[in-house]
Write the structure tokens for this entry.
Amino acid sequence: MVNNPTPYTISDLAKEFTISTRSIRFYEDQGLLHPKRVASKRLYSKHDKLRLKLVLRGKRLGFSLSEIKELFDLYDAKMNSSQEVLSLIDNIKLKKLSLLQQLEDIQVVLMELKSAERRCNDALKKLNQP
């Protein structure tokens, strides 16, 4: 017999991730979370909790909810035929290329910010000299 872990309530998740219950319901409406319903109560599984964590991480990284859903769809894809697996591999490669380009862009922006910060500090030193 499989021992099912105690499910999480919407309040449990909201408190743990310091977000509103409204946000969690919105993510559910967007198809990112799939809690079980018992009467009018939502019960979230460990899987839902992990997905919520990934949604919030994706948002911090600048992903749109549709991009996050696309990543979930890649992860959840059925692999019933060679064609489906090949298609999934192609989609994964495209997503990886996109992320690598974003990483490169972020690195360039960080270098530009460091340079701007250095120029500002140099200007401040000159302004503070007698």
